[in-house]
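Exercise 7.
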Amino acid sequence: MKIQENIPLAPLTTFGIGGPARWFADAASEDDVAQAVAWAHARRVPVFVLGGGSNLLVSDAGFDGLVLRIALRGIAVDTASGNCIYQAAAGELWDAFVQRTIWDDCAGIECLAGIPGAVGGTPVQNVGAYGQEVANVIERVRVFDLDALAFVELAAAECGFAYRRSRFNTTDRGRFLVTRVDYRLTPGGAPALRYPELHRAIQAVHRDGSKPTLTEVAEEVRRIRRSKGMLIIEDDPDCHSAGSFFKNPIISESLFQKIAARSAAAPPRFPAGSGPESDGLVKIPAAWLIEQAGFHKGCVLGAAGISSRHTLALVNRGGASAAEILALAEQIANAVEARFGLQLEMEPVLVGFNRTPSHRAE
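Solution. The predicted structure, written as tokens, is:
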């Protein structure tokens, strides 16, 4: 394994922003992962684990440590249990993996089509969209434990999944490096149509009552994502982003009513989750809060801006710095807090800033 120096990180991210990595290496095997960690520990160098580069903002100064790009590849399928267990290496591109499961007629992640990045980042963020999230289908996650310096496998129940959260980005942030994720999918299963916008679009095509296919649903999801600038397309300025920059807040019913009272019309609301832990809670769209606070699609601040197609996406309009992106994000968050008394939470990982964790897989 070759350790390189001063490698630019901006070209390796969908934002196209950020300075260099002091050291950089590609890990094509679990042996590479262990060797890279040993190399970094021997030199007391912090490690950042890079996947698809789709959910992070790198500082203008870069990262003063080792950036380890996960390049593990391979997909194995086990059908012995009646379900399909897909064992996907962390470096596999997520959208290509989703498409593979659709070709195999296995349901469970079809609504997650079009999401950029790699397999290894999905359990960290508990990636979800359009009525599905990976927590519902993950069987286990294979990781390198930086405390024990050993590979271990964690069952889904051990991962602490919640909305856009897991133990990997909360209680055990920086402890585990994901090398493989196992997903339990349903052969011949029906596509999920829980998300209202997706359900309406599919119903419009199947007015005769015929059943949609997984392929149709995945393609409609990609179409919707593209219409919102959330599908990575080369030369599309709205795609130079990290996707949704803010999480949709989950709030109490009483706070929802206070926000509604301060608005001309009640905000949209969605279920906070399906478990008892979500009782009395409501999910409210961050995009609605941002627009009500006075920010609109296409708003600009220097070379940083808001997507012309979706208020949640901050974009690099060309030559933007990380400082400009954060300045715009701060203006938005402050305006929402001043209007509604609610703090927005950023979704992308910050790399190379003082508050950045020493290890994180994205």
